[in-house]
Amino acid sequence: MDPSLDTWDFSSPLISLWINRFYIYLGFAFGISLWICFQIVIRKQLFIFKGKNSKDKSVPKATRDLMTNGYISLQKKDILVSGVKIFYGSQTGTAKGFAASLAEAVTSLGLPVAVINLQEYDPDDHLVEEVTSKNVCAFVVATYTDGRPTESAEWFCKWLEEASSDFRFGKTYLKGMRYAVFGLGNSAYANHFNKVGKNVDKWLWMLGAHRVVARGEGDCDVVKSKHGSIEADFRVWKTKFISRLQALRKGERKPCGGNCKKGQCESSAEEEPFESTSEEESGTEDHQNLNSVVDVEDLGKIMNCVKKEKREKEHQEEKSTLVRNAVKGEASERRAMITPALREALTKQGYQLIGSHSGVKLCRWTKSMLRGRGGCYKHTFYGIESHRCMETTPSLACANKCVFCWRHHTNPVGTEWRWKMDQPEMILKEAIENHQSMIKQFKGVPGVREDRFEEGMMVKHCALSLVGEPIMYPEINRFLKLLHECKISSFLVTNAQFPVEIRNLKPVTQLYVSVDASTKDSLKKIDRPLFKDFWQRFLNSLKALAAKQQRTVYRLTLVKAWNVDELQAYAELVSLGNPDFIEVKGVTYCGESSASSLTMANVPWHEEVVHFVRELVALIPNYEIACEHEHSNCLLIAHTRFKIDGEWWTWIDYNRFQELVQEYEDSGGLTNFSAKDYVAKTPLWALFGASERGFDPKDTRYQRKNKSKDISGC
Fold it and tell me: For the Flavodoxin-like domain, which residue ranges apply (predicted)?
């Protein structure tokens, strides 16, 4: 045997391995390749999962914790909206009504709903709970005087404002909370329109909350309201809110705006940034980017922003053009002052509404005199027949929101005429017809005197003081002329905010100016005027009154703890307008109203009114106390030129006035006349100090049961 072969046989396994080494290397390489591929697949799956987890914020944390080793445990379908909480801040009850309406709509979706008065809600303890509650919170808030929140929402707004600027809360304090805001306001107050709604929206956004639907803004001004009335504004917003709520329940994302690739948005954000803040910030950033060094990658983005700004500018110019064109055709497209909701509210209060902006109502003193139970203070002071007096107005709108408004602010407000306008002939015709219709209802009523019922069907006097600002009506002079042609005397009341209209006013039987306060601060507090230059308008109105030749009257309404301590200032205003008469009346308490903070404590007793009048007369020369009507808590101060031969002549010769005003009209205004040309002697029972205290002895005084003494101001 060859020894070399024995050697090779000894190492035959090694030789075999050596001979087959290529296959061994190939096997190792294949195994390593499989391992590498496996690792790549695993890592890719984890990367995809993490990316999806970071984008899809709707996946709860509990579900994410169950994701291990590249798989997900099947879970029950998540509840995306657990319920709706509706918070409201209301002063007159409108916001509360809207909240109830919204709750009814939410309930129809089968969702739990809670309606919460902000006055009973503590945001410090409970608001943060909404971050994890899966509720959607809706805020229905009204803007009150000077852009302030209503009393019920005052604390909530104060807390929210402070929290939004407190670093201890931070910008993520309410992150996860979903909300929507509807504000109520009146665009007549341009500087404060919907200020509370805007602020609540802004403060919630600053704390990290997510807006689910754009803020709604209701406008009481029917002319400027986007949909014709505040109720219509709310209905439109409510529809959007309910639609968005349904989408949230289904887990739908916000509809794509078409600005992303293929119209498919990757973001699932539910809200847009707060309008003013975000636009200002983004605009600043864009301009900074344009003025600084930028990366090539960012250049396309910046150019898109520039193009977007250009498109928005062009759109704004087109919108301005449309607005200008709309203004040109405004006269033919003006809206009615009386909205359906306002019509319902005023009808409940006993108004007979006329056309689109007028109304008539039966005065309680008309009813009283029909039954022989006495007339109003105008009967005592000026000799009107209360049962023949029609109380009406050609304009339900007013430029003030006085705290003692006896209509509880149900009427609209405005600083100029922007509504549809009815013709004065139609207004007067329907006013008389409606007045007569209301008088007819007293036929056969126990106590109604037959002679006075017949007289009551023939209107002799018209008190243009029902509600609102009659002088705002563009055709007020034509309306007055029609009254005088019908032999109806005119008593027109204005709130001293329209000096030009007072100056241009044709003769009236008696022209009143309400002087509710004697200083700028107290007038703003009591009358709450819409005009910015309300004080100058007030002073100019008094000056315009001084130029009138017919009878003029200051009407002072005393509100205890508000305006009874301003005697010297009142005396100065008297010298400015030099009125023929000054009526001083204690404020009438018309019951509790959410629109006013007045109570019976603000109503002065008759003795207090008398004391005030005595002190005022001592400060104004050539004026004395002439008459008194205790039941109305009212006194009349008259200029001594109406005290002829020691006797007061404050009453009016109505037949003589009609003759004089007819001569004025026939002469085209050349033949004028003065207040002393149509005076009549005041009866003794009407004078101050008489035992009758202003009650006509021809009638029988009626005392209410369980009342031994009349209460002042009733």
Answer: 84-242
What type of residue is 134?
A: K
Give domain 350-686's CATH architecture: Alpha-Beta Barrel (3.20)
Question: Mean pLDDT across the chain, nearest whole number?
Answer: 81
Alpha carbon of residue 599 to chain centroid: 23
How many Å is the maximal CA-CA distance in the chain? 175
Q: How far apart are CA 92 and CA 70, in angstroms?
A: 59
Each residue's pLDDT tens digit, 51-63: 555 545 444 444 4
* pTM to 2 decimal places: 0.65
Question: Rounded to an integer, what distance in angstroms lies between the CA atom of residue 181 and that of residue 476?
Answer: 41
**489, 440, 481, 529: which is closest to 655 by C-alpha?**
489
Question: Distance between alpha carbon 201 and the CA centroid of its chain, in Å?
Answer: 18
The pLDDT value recorded for residue 389 is: 96
CA 511 – CA 553 distance, rounded (Å): 6
Name the residue among 447, 75, 99, 443 with its Cα closest to residue 241: 99
Kindly state the DSSP code that residue 604 receives in the 8-state scheme.
P
Residue 712: both structure tokens together: 């002042």
CB of 490 closer than 8 Å to CB of 508:
yes
Pairing of strands 551-558, 581-586: parallel
Query: What does DSSP assign to residue 508?
Result: -
Instruction: Read off the tokens for 353.
Output: 């509404």
pLDDT band at 199 (very low <50, low <70, confident <90, very high): very high
User: How far apart, in whole angstroms, are the C-alpha atoms of residue 401 and residue 226?
Assistant: 23
Which residue blocks in 424-577 are alpha helix, DSSP H?
424-440, 450-456, 476-485, 499-504, 520-527, 534-546, 567-577
pLDDT of residue 487: 97
What confidence tens digit (pLDDT) does each residue in 473-494 have?
Answer: 999 999 999 999 999 999 999 9
- Taking only the tens place, the pLDDT of each residue in 327-370 is 444 444 678 888 887 888 888 888 899 999 999 999 999 999 99
How far is the C-alpha of 203 from the C-alpha of 173, rounded, in Å?
A: 11
Instruction: Give pLDDT, residue 652.
Output: 98
**The pLDDT of residue 285 is above 50:** no
At residue 87, does pLDDT exceed 70? yes
CATH class as words, domain 83-249: alpha beta
| Separation of alpha carbons 414 and 403, rounded Å | 17
For 407, counting Cβ atoms within 10 Å of its Cβ (0-12 exposed, 13-18 middle, 19+ buried), the class is buried
* Least confident range of 87-101, 242-256, 301-315, 421-435: 301-315
Cβ atoms 510, 491 nearer than 8 A: yes
Residue 140 has phi, psi (to 5 degrees) of -115, 100
Rounded to 5°, the CA angle 400-495-643 comes to 155
CA separation for the pair 712, 635 (Å, rounded) = 13
Residue 659's region, left for phi above 0, alpha for psi from -120 to 50, else beta, is alpha
Ramachandran area for residue 64 (φ above 0: left; ψ -120 to 50: alpha; else beta): alpha
Numbered ranges of CATH 3.20.20.70 in the chain? 350-686
The count of other CB atoms within 10 Å of the CB of residue 27 is: 10
* 215 close to 171: Cβ distance less than 8 angstroms: no
Q: How far apart are CA 712 and CA 605, in angstroms?
A: 5
451: tokens are: 């002679």
Pairing of strands 113-117, 216-219: unpaired
217 touches 194 (CB < 8 A): yes
Contact 91, 151 (CB under 8 A): yes
Torsions phi, psi of 413, nearest 5?
Answer: -125, 160
Phi, psi of 692, deg, nearest 5: -75, -15
Which residue matches tokens 């959410």? Answer: 594
What pLDDT, on the 0 to 100 scale, is given for residue 211?
94
Q: Cα separation of 268 and 516, whole Å? A: 57
